[in-house]
Amino acid sequence: MGLGTVVALLLGTCSNALMTWNSLRERQINFAVLRALGTEPLLVTQMLAWEQGLIYLLALPIGITFGLLLTLTLIPNLIISSTPVAGTLGNLSGVEYNLLQHTLPVRVQPPLSLVFTLLALVGIAILSVYLIARSSRRTILAQTIRLSQD
């Protein structure tokens, strides 16, 4: 697996974690109001974890489906090789070789390390949802609503 694939997967994972963190920061006052109205901190945490988990559970199959679709449709069109000079295919003209090249099926074999990387990134996403949900329980109610600054 190439360095570009690893970097793209890490950047995607980091951006998802930052978007979740930003969502928590923007709605921190809403969570504090819910807690002030009597909602248990555990319920607020479960609500946030359920919301983010649902987003990840929907985004993962959609991303895998589109990735496979793009891989299977684009890779056969990107394969370009020159006409061999010697050997059994050396007697073919350039047009015949090009037709033969496009009639033979292309096998796409993803490396096993890609599966392990995907599983590791899913684990990182679960850990980030847990840590962000846990940090939502640690907010100080009076400080968030700013009652002490009156």
Describe this structure as you would to a colleague.
By secondary structure, the protein is mainly α. It has six helices and no strands. The model has no long low-confidence stretch (mean pLDDT 77).
What's a quick, concise take on this entry?
This protein is mainly alpha-helical. The chain is built from six helices and no strands.
Number of helices: 6
Spell out the helices and strands N to C: HHHHHH
Strand content: under 5%
Major sheet description = none
General shape = rod-shaped
Report the helical percentage: over 70%
Rg, alpha carbons = 25 Å
Separation, N- and C-terminal Cα atoms = 57 Å
Strand runs, count: 0
Mean pLDDT, rounded to whole units? 77
Structural class: mainly alpha
- Report low-confidence residues grouped into runs of 5 or more: none
List keywords for this structure.
rod-shaped; 6 helices; 150 residues; mainly alpha; 75% helix
List strands and helices in order, with pairings.
Layout: H1 3-26, H2 28-36, H3 41-78, H4 94-103, H5 112-137, H6 141-145
